[in-house]
Amino acid sequence: MTEATDREEPGHDPELDLVLERVIDVPPELVWTAWTRPEHVKQWFAPAPWTVSECEIDLRPGGAFRTVMRSPEGEAYPNVGCYLEIVENRRLVFTDALRPGYRPAENPFFTAVVTLEPSGGGTRYVARAIHRDVEGRKKHEEMGFQYGWSAALDQLVELAKTL
Amino acid sequence: MTEATDREEPGHDPELDLVLERVIDVPPELVWTAWTRPEHVKQWFAPAPWTVSECEIDLRPGGAFRTVMRSPEGEAYPNVGCYLEIVENRRLVFTDALRPGYRPAENPFFTAVVTLEPSGGGTRYVARAIHRDVEGRKKHEEMGFQYGWSAALDQLVELAKTL
Fold it and tell me: For residues A153 and A125, is the Cβ–Cβ distance under 8 A?
């Protein structure tokens, strides 16, 4: 994370947000494809040995982003989010604070902002998790945000190279 | 409210949503102006004898929509929302489930979807309040949703005719 990144996202608060930033060697167009097609998301979104058994994407503001993650023991962890911003090949925003159709949700955890910038032949990839409060940020850290999101990104890169 | 309107908004649920629909005799462009400039919002957004003492508008997805309403006794009721969709002269969506910058909020109440369609020389105006649960919808009804939003719309029309 750099100061430049902090300045780019209005309202960034290092006490409340977690950020993964890396330059990866696949272009933004392939990263976008990996993020926006269910058959691809199922292959990379959960860090192994976790898996994604279901994925539904309705790629428009207010549309659904649903996944079911599976623990190695097979336990199901469903997530329902709502897309907020869709800027092809550049920026994807979704939140679990709203259900699809913008209906306020029961137990909001975070909003995700993923930004992609061309960098050489690759992508400067920034994934930001925006939490309600310090407790939310700490909980996400304890769940292994840095390891989990980074391992999933490795899987995304590996997949994107085959597209 | 008509069945046609219900069909138009994906995810509409009459148990959870409240809707004000009217055809008004000012064109969408003036309704839009009245909704999106702080100096105008202050004049119509609270049904008299309530008033709006402060209004801040950052008209972009993720931007702030802040108001302070005042009761006739002068008590302040601050509201902070986040814009989600901005389609000039046609559609405005904001929510208090997110703070500006898409940060999940403490006590979400509802998302507002305002749609404007040309109708003769006027506007078919639909304002929808989307609640998390039945309790939220009932609370909003008991707060006087139908009277309040309708009285405010009368004030908007009166103002828009002077623009």
Answer: yes
- In tens, the pLDDT along A47-84 reads 999 999 999 999 999 999 999 999 999 999 999 999 99
CA–CA gap between residue A144 and residue B132 (Å, rounded): 30
Does residue B114 sit in helix, strand or coil? Answer: strand
Element (H, E) at B137: helix B134-142
How far is Cα A100 from Cα A103, in angstroms, rounded to an integer?
6
Is the Cβ pair B11, A103 closer than 8 Å?
yes
B127 contact A CB<8A = no
Tokens 């040309």 sit at which residue? Answer: B118
CB–CB of B61 and A106 under 8 A? no
Diameter of chain A by CA atoms? 42
Contact between B104 and A95 using a beta-carbon 8 Å cutoff: yes
Tell me what percent of the residues of chain B surpass a pLDDT of 70: 95
Q: What ipTM goes with this model?
A: 0.91
Strands B91-95, B98-99: parallel, antiparallel or unpaired by DSSP? unpaired
Which single residue is written with the structure tokens 């190695």?
A72
Inter-residue contact A109 to A129 (CB < 8 Å): no
Write out residues 51-90 of B within 8 Å (CB-CB) of A.
61-62, 84-85
Note the pLDDT of residue B4.
42
Burial of B49 from C-beta contacts in 10 A (0-12 / 13-18 / 19+): exposed
- Say if residue B107 is exposed, middle or buried (CB neighbours under 10 Å; 0-12, 13-18, 19+): exposed
